[in-house]
Write a structure and sequence with these properties.
Blueprint lengths: L9 H10 L7 E2 L2 H10 L4 H4 L3 E6 L5 E7 L1 H6 L17 E8 L4 E6 L9
Antiparallel strand pairs: 1-2, 2-3, 3-4, 4-5
Length: 120
Amino acid sequence: MSWKFWEKKEETAGQAGIHKEKLPRPTEMESHVGQFLVVNLGKNPDWVWKLKVVKRPQAEKHRYNVRVFSDGTAGEKGVRVKDYTSLDGHPELILFEGWFDKKTNMAHLHEGPVPSPKAT
């Protein structure tokens, strides 16, 4: 008998990642993102550093899609933000959206959610 329960079959391992991706919870403002908002978009630093960030990894290991939101506003609307996809149904809560790269310390964001291709 070969009971290697700690080893996953290739089929099982591949299917598990397809349906549900484990995304990080909301965090404090990332330094790259906060600097971009203050320096490039001219936002008030006192306001910016109070905002929260949710991110989703891209194909490149050190690159992330990012959404910036106000935890207080989300709470007032009764929306519990668990991860990046929590804001899919509430685009009005997304203050800034874009990407950042931890390796190069670059970020690019714009105000509001990214327009969906279906809207055009």
